[in-house]
Design brief:
This protein is of the alpha+beta class and 157 residues long. The protein has a single domain, classed as Hotdog Thioesterase (Thiol Ester Dehydrase, Chain A). The chain contains five helices and eight strands; from the N terminus they run βββαααααβββββ. The chain is elongated, with a radius of gyration of 17 Å.
Length: 157
Protein backbone atom coordinates (compact mmCIF):
# COMPACT_ATOMS: atom_id res chain seq x y z
CA UNK A 1 0.00 0.00 0.00
CA UNK A 2 1.35 3.39 -0.93
CA UNK A 3 2.40 5.77 1.83
CA UNK A 4 1.17 9.37 2.15
CA UNK A 5 3.37 12.00 0.51
CA UNK A 6 3.14 15.57 -0.69
CA UNK A 7 4.82 17.77 -3.26
CA UNK A 8 6.09 21.28 -2.56
CA UNK A 9 6.49 23.62 -5.53
CA UNK A 10 8.64 26.70 -4.90
CA UNK A 11 8.42 28.23 -8.38
CA UNK A 12 5.13 28.16 -10.24
CA UNK A 13 6.95 27.32 -13.46
CA UNK A 14 8.07 24.05 -11.88
CA UNK A 15 4.46 22.85 -11.64
CA UNK A 16 4.63 21.99 -15.36
CA UNK A 17 7.18 19.26 -14.59
CA UNK A 18 4.43 17.34 -12.79
CA UNK A 19 1.97 17.17 -15.68
CA UNK A 20 0.58 13.62 -15.81
CA UNK A 21 2.17 12.74 -12.46
CA UNK A 22 0.97 12.15 -8.93
CA UNK A 23 1.45 15.10 -6.58
CA UNK A 24 0.58 13.32 -3.38
CA UNK A 25 -1.46 10.93 -1.29
CA UNK A 26 -3.28 12.22 1.78
CA UNK A 27 -3.42 10.69 5.22
CA UNK A 28 -6.34 8.46 6.10
CA UNK A 29 -9.59 10.03 7.29
CA UNK A 30 -12.20 8.15 9.30
CA UNK A 31 -15.84 8.21 8.31
CA UNK A 32 -17.89 8.08 11.49
CA UNK A 33 -21.64 7.87 11.89
CA UNK A 34 -21.47 11.22 13.70
CA UNK A 35 -20.01 12.90 10.60
CA UNK A 36 -22.69 11.33 8.42
CA UNK A 37 -25.48 12.36 10.82
CA UNK A 38 -24.23 15.94 11.01
CA UNK A 39 -24.03 16.17 7.21
CA UNK A 40 -27.55 14.72 6.93
CA UNK A 41 -28.83 17.26 9.43
CA UNK A 42 -27.15 20.20 7.72
CA UNK A 43 -28.29 19.22 4.22
CA UNK A 44 -31.72 17.84 5.16
CA UNK A 45 -30.73 14.60 3.44
CA UNK A 46 -32.00 12.08 5.98
CA UNK A 47 -32.31 8.98 3.80
CA UNK A 48 -32.29 5.73 5.78
CA UNK A 49 -29.22 4.43 3.91
CA UNK A 50 -27.20 7.18 5.64
CA UNK A 51 -28.68 7.45 9.13
CA UNK A 52 -30.69 4.35 10.03
CA UNK A 53 -28.29 1.54 10.96
CA UNK A 54 -31.09 -0.97 11.63
CA UNK A 55 -32.65 -0.52 8.18
CA UNK A 56 -29.20 -0.45 6.57
CA UNK A 57 -28.29 -3.74 8.25
CA UNK A 58 -31.45 -5.26 6.82
CA UNK A 59 -31.69 -3.71 3.32
CA UNK A 60 -28.34 -2.22 2.31
CA UNK A 61 -25.92 -4.29 0.22
CA UNK A 62 -23.21 -2.97 2.57
CA UNK A 63 -25.16 -4.11 5.68
CA UNK A 64 -24.34 -0.77 7.30
CA UNK A 65 -24.96 2.90 6.69
CA UNK A 66 -22.93 4.77 4.08
CA UNK A 67 -21.71 8.35 3.77
CA UNK A 68 -23.29 10.81 1.38
CA UNK A 69 -21.22 11.19 -1.79
CA UNK A 70 -21.01 14.95 -1.36
CA UNK A 71 -19.77 14.47 2.21
CA UNK A 72 -16.81 12.56 0.78
CA UNK A 73 -16.34 15.21 -1.89
CA UNK A 74 -16.24 17.91 0.81
CA UNK A 75 -12.90 16.43 1.91
CA UNK A 76 -11.30 17.32 -1.47
CA UNK A 77 -9.96 20.64 -0.14
CA UNK A 78 -8.29 18.93 2.82
CA UNK A 79 -6.88 16.23 0.55
CA UNK A 80 -5.35 18.81 -1.82
CA UNK A 81 -3.95 20.87 1.07
CA UNK A 82 -2.24 17.75 2.43
CA UNK A 83 -0.75 16.74 -0.92
CA UNK A 84 0.22 19.92 -2.79
CA UNK A 85 1.90 23.07 -1.50
CA UNK A 86 2.40 25.93 -3.93
CA UNK A 87 4.80 28.58 -2.63
CA UNK A 88 5.30 32.13 -3.87
CA UNK A 89 1.83 32.67 -5.21
CA UNK A 90 0.08 35.99 -4.83
CA UNK A 91 -3.50 34.97 -5.49
CA UNK A 92 -5.44 31.78 -6.21
CA UNK A 93 -8.90 31.30 -7.68
CA UNK A 94 -10.67 27.96 -7.47
CA UNK A 95 -13.01 27.62 -10.47
CA UNK A 96 -14.64 24.59 -8.94
CA UNK A 97 -15.26 21.12 -10.25
CA UNK A 98 -14.99 19.96 -13.83
CA UNK A 99 -16.13 16.33 -13.41
CA UNK A 100 -17.33 14.27 -10.43
CA UNK A 101 -18.23 10.58 -10.24
CA UNK A 102 -19.13 8.37 -7.28
CA UNK A 103 -18.35 4.80 -8.46
CA UNK A 104 -18.55 3.23 -5.01
CA UNK A 105 -19.96 3.86 -1.53
CA UNK A 106 -18.14 4.82 1.67
CA UNK A 107 -19.38 2.65 4.54
CA UNK A 108 -19.55 4.18 7.99
CA UNK A 109 -16.55 3.33 10.19
CA UNK A 110 -14.25 2.97 7.18
CA UNK A 111 -11.08 4.88 6.36
CA UNK A 112 -10.60 6.85 3.16
CA UNK A 113 -7.86 8.95 1.56
CA UNK A 114 -7.15 10.80 -1.64
CA UNK A 115 -4.55 10.69 -4.39
CA UNK A 116 -3.94 13.91 -6.34
CA UNK A 117 -2.41 14.24 -9.79
CA UNK A 118 -1.91 17.09 -12.25
CA UNK A 119 -3.80 16.37 -15.48
CA UNK A 120 -3.77 19.74 -17.28
CA UNK A 121 -1.91 23.02 -17.10
CA UNK A 122 -1.83 26.13 -19.27
CA UNK A 123 -0.14 29.49 -18.97
CA UNK A 124 -2.23 32.54 -18.13
CA UNK A 125 -0.99 36.10 -17.93
CA UNK A 126 0.85 36.27 -14.59
CA UNK A 127 0.13 32.67 -13.65
CA UNK A 128 -1.24 29.29 -14.65
CA UNK A 129 -4.57 27.52 -14.90
CA UNK A 130 -4.43 23.87 -13.88
CA UNK A 131 -6.64 20.86 -13.34
CA UNK A 132 -6.10 18.37 -10.53
CA UNK A 133 -7.58 14.90 -10.52
CA UNK A 134 -8.55 13.62 -7.08
CA UNK A 135 -9.22 9.93 -6.57
CA UNK A 136 -10.68 9.07 -3.18
CA UNK A 137 -10.40 5.45 -2.09
CA UNK A 138 -11.64 3.43 0.86
CA UNK A 139 -9.18 1.21 2.69
CA UNK A 140 -9.44 -2.36 1.45
CA UNK A 141 -11.48 -1.54 -1.68
CA UNK A 142 -10.17 -1.57 -5.25
CA UNK A 143 -12.91 0.66 -6.70
CA UNK A 144 -12.66 4.35 -5.72
CA UNK A 145 -15.53 6.11 -3.94
CA UNK A 146 -15.06 9.43 -5.71
CA UNK A 147 -13.20 10.68 -8.77
CA UNK A 148 -13.20 14.43 -9.26
CA UNK A 149 -11.40 17.13 -11.22
CA UNK A 150 -10.89 20.60 -9.80
CA UNK A 151 -9.77 23.64 -11.80
CA UNK A 152 -7.76 26.52 -10.33
CA UNK A 153 -5.85 29.58 -11.47
CA UNK A 154 -2.90 30.81 -9.48
CA UNK A 155 -0.87 33.96 -9.95
CA UNK A 156 2.78 34.26 -9.01
CA UNK A 157 4.28 36.87 -6.75
Amino acid sequence: MEKPFSTEINKLEDLKKYLGKDLGISNWFEMSQEKVNLFAELTYDNQWIHIDSEKAAKYSPYKKTIAHGFLILSFATQIVSQTVKLNNIAFAVNYGLNKVRFPNATPVNSKFRGKVSLIDIEDKEGGVKFTLKIIIEVEGETKPVCVAETISIVYKV
